[in-house]
Amino acid sequence: xxxxxxxxxxxxGISVSIIIIAVNGGFSGPGPSLFNxxxxxNLWAVGGNVRAGxxxxxxxxxxxxxxxxxxxxxxxxxxxxxxxxxxxxxxxxNGILNNNDWKVTIHIINETKQSPSINxxxxxxxxxxxxxxIFLSKQQLTNAASHPISQDFLPFYxxxxxxILEIRDxxxxxxxxxxxxxxxxxxxxxxxxxxxVTAQEKxxxxxxxxxxxxxSYTIGSKTSRIWIDQHxxxxxxxxxxxxxxxxxxxxxxIGYKK
Length: 258
Fold this sequence. Notes:
Elements: H1 2-24, E1 43-44, E2 55-62, E3 82-91, E4 98-109, H2 120-125, E5 129-137, H3 154-161, H4 167-170, E6 175-176, E7 182-187, E8 192-205, E9 208-219, E10 222-229, E11 237-241, E12 247-257
Antiparallel strand pairs: 1-6, 2-3, 2-12, 3-4, 4-5, 7-8, 8-9, 9-10, 10-11, 11-12
């Protein structure tokens, strides 16, 4: 009888543990589940699926000074209703192939009112354009220390770094794209706020149709959301608010060349 009761209690304890893991470990959505846990195929990493020739075109509104829980970058300039193009190529500085970094050409047109019809011909004919080259590591797209960013281009790059590329500060390593999975957390004076995958949503943009997972967190009364497709190297779109409940930045992918 004692052995039987011990066995029952042990089984009950294991069941409770499994339920707790399922609830808090990211197994709450469709797809992976308690009996079909997530695998490496459910992981997403910043910069994944980038190839030489990959181009990502965004409409971007970055508003006001930067007030972010993720970084302390200032506001040297503001990109309002901008077009931003990120064009990836192999780094062959001085004729030597660098397999660790991407050479990324960035084109910016400010105050374009988020026109989805912008293309490279429009860029080349625009007088309100800024172009610069940066080098990003092939792992997590962090800034390559061996290639400092030009001081002339830095004021234009920082608003991109603290919006489209801010996902680097949230996803510090490959993370599970599974509803319920916690990616990071924000510590405030009164609480620790989880940053979690909260939903799935199919969205359609001028760049195509994407099966996205929504990464979100709430500070104050506003919820910030970032839409991520497993097969895209950077988020598809985002709406991010600061601690004063003001829209900090918003962007949408309007063109994607794989």
